[in-house]
Amino acid sequence: MKSTIHVAAAALAASLLATHAAAQETGNAEAGKAKAALCAACHGPNGISINPLWPSLAGQQPVYLAKQIRAFRDGERVEPTMQPFVVNLTDQDVEDIAAYYATLSPCP
Ligand code: HEC
């Protein structure tokens, strides 16, 4: 029984790592930089926000960023000020933007 759990845990860890690696390969940070131009108005030119109500995105995990951007776009996460900026993004745009913010240095 114990070894079954270990095998299951190892398999889960391996699949999580695989998902992570795959997601990182799909985004193009260079393309994402141009696509994130509008986002800078609130999230800052370097992904560091100066308004306490707007989160900093610099250095965040790309998989998490992509998940949140899609959630705003698809209306699963509701933020009326955000949605107009993400509503027309394609899945590729989302991956590129997420890859771009992930390359920036986080808040000191
Ligand atoms: C008008 C200001 C504004 C603009 C422009 C804007 N956002 Fe946001 N964004 C917000 C606010 C406010 C939140 C926090 C929402 C909340 O409190 O749930 C947010 C949250 C987020 C989050 C979630 C962060 C987290 O830690 O969960 C992501 C990702 C994000 N924005 C990406 C973007 C992207 C990509 C763009 C451009 C396509 C963009 N935003 C444009 C205001 C903005």
Number of helices: 6
* Range of strand content: under 5%
The major pleated sheet works out as: none
How large is the radius of gyration? 16 Å
Known CATH architecture? Orthogonal Bundle
Silhouette: globular
Distance between the termini: 46 Å
What does the average pLDDT come to? 86
CATH classification, class level: Mainly Alpha
Annotation, overall tally of beta strands:
0
What low-confidence regions span 5 or more consecutive residues with pLDDT below 50? none
> Topology as H/E string?
HHHHHH
Examine the coordinates and then state which fold CATH places here, giving the name of the CATH topology. Answer: Cytochrome Bc1 Complex, Chain D, domain 2
Helix content: 55-70%
Alpha-beta classification: mainly alpha
Question: What's the number of structural domains?
Answer: 1
The hetero compounds bound to this protein are: heme C
Q: Assign the CATH superfamily.
A: Cytochrome c-like domain
Descriptive account of the structure:
This protein has 108 residues and is mainly α. It has a single domain (27-103), classed as Orthogonal Bundle (Cytochrome Bc1 Complex, Chain D, domain 2). The chain is built from six helices and no strands. Helix 2 (29-35) packs across helix 6 (91-103) and helix 4 crosses helix 6. The mean pLDDT is 86. The chain binds heme C. Heme C (HEC) binds next to helix 3, helix 4 and helix 5. Residues 36, 38-39, 41-43, 53-55, 57, 65, 68-69, 79, 81-82, 85-86, 97 line the site of heme C.
